[in-house]
Amino acid sequence: MASVTDGKTGIKDASDQNFDYMFKLLIIGNSSVGKTSFLFRYADDTFTPAFVSTVGIDFKVKTVYRHEKRVKLQIWDTAGQERYRTITTAYYRGAMGFILMYDITNEESFNAVQDWYDTHYRYSFIYIYIIYISHKPDVDEDRALTIQKSEILSSNIRFDFFEASAKENISVRQAFERLVDAICDKMSDSLDTDPSMLGASKNTRLSDTPPLLQQNCSC
Ligand code: GTP
Ligand code: MG
């Protein structure tokens, strides 16, 4: 089995036990749709045009703040290649949120969306929310997928849909924020503690900085 390695951000944060909640998230979709790039953009704010296909599975950890609570995100980046499917689906269990991605320059990746949806549903058991990402709109001249097809999908699904680009840093952070917010909202009934923490203010934005720093921030 492929080894699980910490990503750059993961090394620093993975052992950090100082958090209020931990959410396991998974990114799924065909090979080369841009899953790893999406995660690197979110976690490290980096992008590389080189394609290094993921072997098995990897993860990064990022801590965000929501209502003065630390939410630790354990984000798993799965390999899209078919030969790793047995390995990757073993990690679906316990995931609360999924990001399902296709590439607008690759129609096959769009046609595979239903299969990915079925797979995540079959293996995750407790999953709460899934977000769809139509990726790489920055390469519109190579668009293999008609805009209409994307629009039909986005209007038919009952989950959130983002057109996003890791390269141009479009809607990456927003997609993660929406996913975490959706999980928080759906969990608010079962979470103890202060009811004002989760359910009361739905559209509160996530933040990378602790509440104290935010208060002192002059920007
Ligand atoms: P597997 O690990 O094989 O499953 O692939 P992946 O889905 O992780 O794809 P990866 O993130 O490695 O990206 C594949 C290729 O797409 C790379 O060459 C990236 O540079 C490129 N890419 C990723 N995101 C974008 C984007 O938003 N726009 C453009 N133009 N290219 C992108
Ligand atoms: Mg990858």
UniProtKB/TrEMBL annotation:
Pfam family, one: Ras
Superkingdom to which the source organism belongs: Eukaryota
SMART domains according to UniProt: RAB (SM00175), RAN (SM00176), RAS (SM00173), RHO (SM00174)
Entry membrane topology: Lipid-anchor
Cited InterPro entries: P-loop_NTPase (IPR027417), Small_GTP-bd (IPR005225), Small_GTPase (IPR001806), Small_GTPase_Rab (IPR050305)
Disulfide bond listed as a keyword: no
Keywords: GTP-binding, Hydrolase, Lipoprotein, Nucleotide-binding, Prenylation
The protein's Enzyme Commission number: 3.6.5.2
UniProt keyword Lipoprotein, yes or no: yes
Catalyzed chemical reaction(s): GTP + H2O = GDP + phosphate + H(+)
Record PROSITE patterns: RAB (PS51419), RAS (PS51421)
SUPFAM superfamilies listed in its UniProt record: P-loop containing nucleoside triphosphate hydrolases (SSF52540)
A GO cellular component entry from the record: membrane
Single Gene Ontology MF annotation: GTP binding
Subcellular localization: Membrane
Family from the record: Belongs to the small GTPase superfamily. Rab family.
PANTHER family linked: LD44762P (PTHR47980)
Protein name: small monomeric GTPase
Species annotation: Otolemur garnettii (Small-eared galago)
